[in-house]
Specification:
- The protein is mainly α.
- The chain contains 15 helices and no strands.
Length: 465
């Protein structure tokens, strides 16, 4: 996860307004940076096993849901440009209490994101340097990330660009050597096959649906594009185009990667390590050098996500403490020297440590999707109400105002319902706590709930919020 680029206020603009300097290509590039081109790489093996060899179908299903949802995000962002994203769209489009619950679900995502990132980084490092076991790598990475965040150090734009270039170099090399490997092995027939799409001996719709609820991790973060709605030229057009374009690019690029990987390693039951299976695929076609390069890229990308994810989670907790939604003495504390919410950073580190050691990559990823898809469903419903029911009859367009967001809602609902029972129990407990809290704070839902201030997540210093 990265922070959006900041823009300077226009000297001739009204106070509090920003110049609209970002073009469509800037938004698309930023969205690709957030999701990263290697998004399907860390989840490849687990998704392959869960889907019984049909990860390609899972990514396509999830891609359809995300592109339909991206359409709703883009339209809502043009009405309500805010760092709160889904929380604001649901609150404004549906109901303030439902908006609070969406924000509560987003808070769970912020807490789980560092866990997913640390697990990915530790698994990759364990493959590169197997002398140290997984728990040691988890502990070392969390200590490193926490130390950096306590000092106020975070990834810069140049570092993000350098990492993105490195990803494209490694992935580009894989694509070239993969095509050469398959062509040499079986000629053109080796590059063209329906097996990755459908294998009758192993296909089962229920397992594919369950795997899709995990493979949707590929797209997590696309909604970050909407946080720049106030900075972009012609936001009503460009935010919508950018969100859909980012999801479309991710779908196409991810499908190419997993399609080649499935042809290179057809039997998902023979992976040496399920969690890092894509690294083994790269070694089969590119040797140890490409294996190590892919591992390093996964580690750096995951640590970058954890670095930003930990501080984002800490700032959400700080905002809740500052607004007395949580005990202010602890959660609202800022270190006088650094201006950082150090207690929250340490708390998130402990949660990440426990979660990384107790949860598998599969369970952590599904828990992340629990909150994300609740928010996605809410945004789609908010778009229907805002554009179809509240808009004057003459301006209504049944297809774009009702059918597209309704389809997005149904796709997301199907994926959410396919989450495993354990994930629903854990996520449901978190959701129930939020509903009870909202009921108590609003005296039985009779007043408006307290606002979760997600704007601080985007700021450089929470004390400036």
């Amino acid at each position: 996860m990265t922070h959006p680029p900041t823009t300077k206020a226009d000297k001739g603009a009204p106070p509090g307004r920003l110049r609209r300097v970002l073009k469509l290509r800037d938004l698309v590039f930023y969205g690709i940076v957030i999701i990263t081109p290697i998004a399907p790489v860390p989840i490849y093996g687990v998704a392959q096993v869960l889907s019984r060899g049909h990860i390609l179908i899972c990514i396509l299903f999830a891609g359809v849901a995300m592109m339909l949802t991206a359409f709703s995000y883009g339209r809502m962002a043009s009405l309500y440009p805010s760092a709160g994203s889904a929380y604001v769209y649901v609150g404004q489009g549906l109901n303030s209490h439902l908006g609070f619950i969406a924000g509560w679900a987003m808070t769970l995502d912020y807490l789980v994101l560092p866990i997913v990132a640390i697990i990915q980084a530790a698994l990759a490092m364990e493959r590169l340097i197997p002398l140290l076991p997984f728990p040691v790598w988890v502990t070392l990475f969390i200590v490193l990330i926490t130390a950096l965040n306590l000092r106020g150090i975070r990834a810069t734009a140049r570092a993000n660009i350098a990492l993105l270039i490195g990803m494209f170099v490694v992935i580009g090399t894989f694509l070239l050597v993969a095509v050469r490997y398959l062509f040499r092995l079986q000629g053109l027939h080796g590059l063209l096959s329906l097996a990755p799409f459908y294998h009758p001996a192993t296909f089962d719709f229920r397992t594919v649906a369950t795997a899709t609820s995990f493979a949707a991790l590929t797209y997590i973060g696309f909604d970050g594009v909407t946080t720049l709605a106030e900075d972009v030229e012609n936001p009503r057009r460009n935010v919508l185009l950018a969100t859909v374009s980012v999801c479309l690019f991710t779908t196409i690029f991810s499908c190419i990667l997993v399609y080649l990987a499935q042809l290179i390693w057809p039997d998902y039951r023979t992976f040496p390590s399920v969690e890092t299976a894509f690294m083994d695929v790269t070694r089969r076609v590119g040797g140890s050098l490409l294996f190590q390069g892919m591992g390093i890229v996964v580690i750096l990308s995951s640590l970058g996500g954890c670095l930003a994810g930990q501080v984002a989670a800490a700032r959400v907790l700080f905002a809740m403490g500052r607004d007395d939604m949580l005990p202010r003495r602890f959660f609202g504390y800022l270190d006088p020297a650094s201006g950082n919410p150090v207690l929250n950073i340490l708390l998130v580190a402990l949660v990440a440590l426990g979660g990384s050691l107790l949860l598998s990559l599969e369970h952590a990823g599904e828990l992340l999707n629990f909150g994300a898809f609740l928010a996605f469903m809410g945004v789609n419903l908010g778009a229907i109400r805002q554009y179809y029911f509240l808009q004057c009859r003459e301006k209504r367009r049944f297809f774009s105002d009702a059918m597209v967001p309704l389809s997005g809602f149904l796709f997301c609902l199907g994926i959410w319902l396919s989450l495993p029972l354990l994930t629903k129990l854990i996520g449901g407990a978190w959701l129930l706590a939020g509903i009870i809290y909202d009921a108590v704070q609003t005296k039985g839902f009779r007043t408006h709930p307290a606002l979760l201030d997600f704007a601080d997540v985007q700021d450089d210093n929470p004390s400036e919020g």
